[in-house]
Specification:
alpha/beta; Rossmann fold; eight-stranded mixed beta sheet; 8 strands; 35% helix; globular; disordered N terminus; AB hydrolase-1 domain-containing protein; AB_hydrolase_1; AB_hydrolase_fold; serine hydrolase activity
Length: 285
């Protein structure tokens, strides 16, 4: 596999849930480069496109990958202004083996892998775009590595779990009840049996947080986030009630909340032009 060679022209170099995935297929691998990088004992698959001075890492949702979750962003985010990295977290997509598991610290593990991947690629400062589960890991990464994270954008994410959330998650546990259109990309990636079992394990993985005080996933991290933060929320999101982005906005100092009236959980795939412009403008400020 071709490996993208970074040069000194970059100023920042050192010496989940249900998704509509068809829009992601617009990404053409010839527009960038892909490789695997050894990070924290595993080989992480990543894709890189663009040549801008501002490095951006895309963090996918539950069991998602760079291409299934971020095709329109890999294809269309401004390549002159940004260097965009999409990756598959450990156990996701092409970052297997190992198989995906869900210990109590799996969000923290993804956050550490994300930061260490960017460091291993030579970036000393970068922004994070996190969707759904990837947004949760982004929150943790921004809190724990404030000197590395330049800006943060999250959508479809939450810092705690409620009984209402568990009802929503259990309603989608059985993937055989999903439409074929929604299942197909994930079954193509994992195989039908592995996908069904791993998705059920994901539901169990997030359910464990209900046992924590206030159902916290990363509530304690929010006051520690110091970088400029944009929280985007689709007002028709069926998986993430609006009290979640409102809580993030209240507890992340100086954060900005942008509501998309017609947006659902996959707003960045459904309305890619609007979303990409919103993100580009925020990152360029």
């Amino acid at each position: 596999m071709a490996r993208f060679v970074l040069t000194g022209r970059f100023l920042n170099l050192r010496p989940d849930t249900i998704r509509v995935l068809t829009a992601a297929r617009t990404y053409c691998s010839s527009s960038g480069a892909s490789a695997r990088q050894r990070v924290n004992g595993v080989d992480l698959f990543y894709e890189q496109t663009g040549r801008g001075q501002h490095a951006v890492l895309l963090l996918p949702g539950a069991l998602g990958s760079s291409r299934t979750d971020f095709g329109p962003q890999l294809k269309s985010l401004n390549k002159e202004r940004f260097t965009v990295i999409g990756w598959d977290p450990r156990g996701h997509g092409r970052s297997r083996p190992p198989d995906r598991d869900f210990p109590a610290d799996f969000y923290e593990r993804d956050a550490a892998d994300a930061v260490d991947l960017m460091k291993s690629l030579g970036f000393c400062k970068f922004s994070l775009l996190g969707w759904s589960d990837g947004g949760i890991s982004s929150l943790i990464a921004a809190a724990r590595s404030p000197d590395l994270v330049h800006k943060l954008v999250v959508w479809g994410s939450n810092a705690f779990i409620t009984q209402q959330d568990l009802v929503l998650y259990n309603a989608v546990r059985d993937v055989s009840k999903w439409s074929a259109r929604m299942r197909q990309p994930m079954e193509d990636m994992y195989g039908a049996e592995v996908f069904a079992g791993t998705w059920a394990a994901w539901v169990d993985g997030v359910t464990q947080f209900i046992k924590r005080p206030e159902g916290s996933i990363c509530m304690e991290c929010l006051p520690l986030i110091t970088c400029p933060t944009l929280i985007v929320h689709g007002e028709k999101d069926p998986m993430v009630p609006i009290f979640h982005p409102q809580y993030l906005h209240k507890h992340i100092k100086g954060s900005r909340l942008h509501l998309m009236p017609e947006g659902k959980h996959n707003l960045h795939l459904r309305f890619p032009e609007e979303f990409n412009k919103l993100v580009e403008d925020f990152l360029d400020e």
